[in-house]
Design goal:
Number of domains: 1
Largest sheet: none
Distance between the termini: 57 Å
Radius of gyration: 17 Å
CATH architecture: Up-down Bundle
C-alpha cells in the first residue's frame, strides 16, 4: 500500500519523496529509540562518576531531540507524515534493546556507545541513499546528523578510553 502524500509544491518527484519519507521515518524511529536509551542511562546511572555521566547522558538526549525534530520535519516538508509514536518506534527501531538492569556508569557508557555507533552507521547509509535518490537536502540533513552523532559518540566513549 502506497503512503498517501500530502499535497505540496515541493518539486522533488513523487517517487523520490515517497522513498525519502520512508527513509526519514526509519531514521526517526531509530533516533527516538536512541534518545530514550540516553534518558534511561541518565536516570539510572550510579557510581563514582555519577554527576559527570548523569549530565553527559542528558546532553546526549537533548542533542538527539534536536536531530529528531529535524528528521521528523523533513518528512513532513516533503509531503509525508512523521511517524513518531511509541508504537511505531517499538516496531521499527533497528537498535538493540537497552539493558534495563544497568546501573554502573561504565556499563551505561558501553551500552550507549554501542547504540550511538549503530545509529551513526545507519545515518551514513541514509546519506548515501538520499544522495543516490537525488535528494541533496535530505542527504545534507543526514550529514549534519552524522557529524553530531559522531561527536556524541566521542564524548561518551571518552569515558572508556585511557592511555594508562
Amino acid at each position: 500500500m502506497k503512503t498517501k502524500l500530502i499535497p505540496t509544491q515541493n518539486t522533488l518527484r513523487e517517487p523520490i519523496r515517497r522513498a525519502m519519507i520512508d527513509l526519514l521515518n526509519q531514521q526517526l524511529a531509530d533516533v527516538l529509540d536512541l534518545g530514550l536509551q540516553a534518558k534511561q542511562a541518565h536516570w539510572n546511572v550510579k557510581g563514582p562518576h555519577f554527576i559527570g555521566l548523569h549530565e553527559l547522558f542528558d546532553k546526549v538526549a537533548e542533542e538527539l531531540e534536536e536531530f529528531t525534530d529535524e528528521i521528523a520535519e523533513r518528512a513532513v516538508e516533503t509531503g509525508g507524515i512523521a511517524l513518531g509514536t511509541i508504537q511505531v518506534v517499538s516496531k521499527k527501531s533497528r537498535l538493540s534493546a537497552y539493558p534495563l538492569e544497568l546501573t554502573s556508569g561504565q556499563k551505561h557508557v558501553a551500552a550507549l556507545s554501542s547504540a550511538l555507533a549503530t545509529f551513526g552507521t545507519t545515518t551514513r547509509a541514509a546519506i548515501d541513499t538520499a544522495a543516490k535518490a537525488g535528494d541533496a537536502d535530505t542527504a545534507d540533513l543526514f550529514t549534519e546528523v552524522s557529524r553530531g552523532v559522531d561527536k556524541l559518540l566521542w564524548l561518551v566513549e571518552a569515558h572508556m578510553q585511557s592511555r594508562d
